[in-house]
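Long-time lurker, finally posting.

We've been working with Integrase catalytic domain-containing protein (Paraburkholderia nemoris) and I want a structural starting point before designing mutants. I don't trust myself to interpret raw outputs, so I'm hoping someone here can both generate the structure tokens and explain anything notable. Sequence follows.
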Amino acid sequence: MTRINCDLLDTLLQSLRVTKQGTELVNEIRDRAPLEPKPRVRAGRMRGEHVSTLMGFAVRLNDFTLQSALLHELDDPHEKCLGYYSWPTDIGGVRYGVSYGSHTQVDVIRPFLLKISEEWVGFVDVFPTSMLKKSAMGGSALYEEVDEGHWTSPPVAERLSSYGLRYQILTETHFGHWYLINMALLSPYHQPDYKVQDPAACEAVVAMVKAKGYMFRRDLIDRQLISADDLNHLIVTRRVFFPLRAQDLTDMRSSAVFRDAIANEVFKATKAASDGFLSLDTTGRERSADVAPDPEPDFIRFVSPEAYDHAQHKLATLPEKISYWWPASGPKRAGNPIPPATKALWKSQAELGELLYNSATYGLIPRWHERGSRAMRFPESEQLWDRVYLKHRLQKRWTIRATHGRFIALAKRLRLPSFSERTAKARDKEYDRSIFVKFRDGRAARYAIAGFAPPGTANRLYQATVPLFLAHIDHTPLEIRIENSANGRRIKSQVWLTVMIDVATGRKLAWTISFSAPSAAAVATVLFECIDRHGCLPRFIVVDNAPEFDSIVMHRILQEAESHLVWRPPYHPRYGSPVEAANNKITVQLLQLLAGNTVAVKSLYDYSRTFIARNAELMTLAQLSAYLKGVFEEVELQVGSARTGDEPVKDYDARRELEVGISYRKSIDLTLSLRRICMPSASNEGLRRVRDEGHVVVNNLAYFSEDLKRFRGQYVRVFPDVIHPGLVYVYVSNAVGWLDAKSIFTDFFALYSKRELLGVIAELKHGRLHGVRDPTLIATVLAEKLLELERDPARKDHLAQQMDRLMNRAPSLLKTEPDSHNYFNAPPNVGAGAIAGEISGTTAKECEEPQGNAQAVPGAEAAAAAQAASQVDADAPGSDAESVNAATGSSDADPPHLSTKDEDFEVIVRPSRLSF
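Top reply, 14 upvotes:
Generated this for you. Predicted structure of Integrase catalytic domain-containing protein:
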């Protein structure tokens, strides 16, 4: 985004009568970093991040649903917002009364946004109505309701008066139920590079909508008059009207597009007449049509005779100064004067009907179908029932009759009104059975019930029915034993599965297996695997509050994919129910009967350390990955679920793509430049000295690059590829940027995980290679050992052929001649500019680099190394496509050491079966 010029901003602020002090505050906010959310998260709410397409940065949120809806609205180009800045400043000295004015509170307020537009400059907050009402009912004068659903804060507005800045409070009534989902789907269609698939079809549909007034989306798409993506583009560009706050864009049964807002109002009125006042008998319908005068619109015939006569009586009383209720208006009203306020209301309704529907009578039609229940409500009794229901019905599992009896006894003791058992049964059916739970700490840790979800409080975002729109990521331990496929030894570490679950279908979008505690590397691998399989990331990704979900790497990946991160509230597992249920199904149903799980042999492992279940009971990582892949990508796609209405997931995905479109997914390529941002540094903070042969040493293995020979003796930062063990990424300096280094036996190492390679290296180190310091020799012996231990005949023959070819070229490879990259598979070309990022490094403690290689850096070399490290820390995140090769002057997007011949030998780098 191009920021507004300072001179233009000052002119705008002056025209809006912002004081000099306010102008200085606005410029100061624009030039500094935002503050943290205050509070970090609101009670019972979800926090997250919104990637702004207007401002080009991510905004931290402490109430995701409402704040994200506001940011989607401001990102809309039609809103004419010049810019906004999150958590801008603290406003101190805000004075307001508490305890109904008996005391004065002085507080510091941190607003959510500073909004700048052509007609409005000031601070904006978005709060749930329940929070504002709770504050007002508690005696605080900080917030005040000025109208139904509209709130303000007189103390804050008074404090900002000296700056000339305005203050606005928005609630959920400003957005409606469906605004967040609709704008999240439509926001990618704002991009100027969107290409219309069929311009002629778009023009035809626009003409049809303008002629008829409205068209149902299902009719347009099922009849193949227009694609869903083009229709979404027409909605975004406002060539047709769609009520974003009133209709669900993903609901094909009832959503429609209109000529304009007036056509939408007429459609709603017609639908209300058909639903609420349609007479069931044929004679009544004919009578209504006969009574209606000629100028009345056609849809007036759908109004029932009773409703039409009632409206005619109202219209007849408007010219009279004093009018009386007619007999059909009710026994208590008949003959009594009609209040002037009621007649004034009727007059305004008649004028509105004449304006919108060309019928004053239709404006006076009674909305009998909109009348709610007039049953009395007793708040104290409702609170008592909630407490009794939680304690006895949910926790103690009492019957509804016993629970109601306890409620009656307590209500009589407290002299409170009570309701019948029939009402209690109705309440019992209304309550959400997904109860809140709270985790108890201690040795006997378990979950305890902490509450339940009242009716109507479900989050609309979590009711998404569109694939690849909302997904969850979580970890689960697998009770299964894994053996090393390279040497057959049992891996004693705990096996963890990190999985991404699609909420709409329950499909496993991506997963990875690790042998250590869940880390940021596992999360990044899952994100890259989803990009590799689907070409995008879900628009919203929900995670828990674990620290590995808040890494710099994850945020950078999500910003590249324009995906939004959501943290679910602590102690509320119901917010993560899709992934929690999926994890339970994986561990209980999929793995319990497999050979090698610890359900059957756990006691033997506990009581006998010498017990090792051999081949018949153990699985390798490749076998487990193949089994999970077959279940997730073949079996589960062919069956239905409760979310898809028993429709196979594969068919459901195809149908929803036709109905909703696919351009809402930000397409992203899995390039090496994108992969670099998730790689942890090597041990010793990643510092390595470039050897004279032009290679660096990581985990006792040599990684060669022709371009590294120019930097002999210099210290560089090395980042091993956690997905492909045969690759490392070398950051030389800010001027040179990134270089890619490869092992001689890249094809060999790509077939094994990092854990398996380190296990074999450790075995060789204590055996035939004890005391060996040459990393090139270690790599050669490792490849020979892997070939010797390979049990798959087909793969063993293929590796043997590669070994022969590589050993024949060994002298050239070890000397790293200019054409050495032709003798082994090179990584894919870098498509975009390199994006550097850092996360906390992970070290392979089993097999560290020999101490002889980690020489002390004397004098000037130490200073140079420290300077290189500081340059990487300061400059790596901003290197991007500007990193230029020192020798050739070319950028990372066109590396000089890659040639067109590599295309025949290019290896597809995929996060397949790696374990960390």
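Before you design anything, note these points.
Residues 275-294, 439-447, 599-616, 810-913 have pLDDT under 50 and may be disordered.
The two ends are 39 Å apart (CA to CA).
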